[in-house]
Amino acid sequence: MPSLALSTAADRNKQPILDVLRQIVPEHGAGLEIASGTGQHVAWFAAALPEWIWQPSDATPNAFTDIETRVAHHGLANVRRPVVIDVTAPTWPLEGAQFDLVYCANMLHIAPWHCCAALMQGSAQHLAPGGVLVTYGPYLEHGVPTSEGNLAFDHSLRARDPAWGIRYREDVEQTAAAAGLRLAARHAMPANNLLLVWMRASAAPPT
Question: For the domain 8-200, what is the CATH superfamily, name and number?
């Protein structure tokens, strides 16, 4: 395989995330990844969950060559060609498609705060009945001690861009509620990250 962009964090966390996904999603379905980046996650999930159809996306097409090359290298017939999705757009270019899983990792802290509301609203529009939105990354939580590493990371993010920064889970939860989603599960992950599962407010929790 030719030299491709590589996220060491994505390489490190792809299996722990997959382990949780196996617990909360059915054996087959359709998944949409927001902010696919290098494509390491979608390729890993598609290989491990072959009964799923995966739709990668990113805000710009710059990463599409890496995504498509990874998919082709692993012979993954269950991954569609990536599409450009700007979460803040009034509509996403998905022609009304619905997904059993919308997955977004490590985006909320490197995007302006209004992108959180946009992610929640767009995901709610494209979740199939019983579907879930999964967000992964570092979060702050009221009443929960924050690691020194996350505090330093938050400081570095805000130094790079004042609109960035690690978000409080409670703020994300309030924003999700405005879009009709509720926090259904919280999974503590390695390296002081959280995997959060969001469902429609009227839906039963995942089993």
Answer: Vaccinia Virus protein VP39 (3.40.50.150)
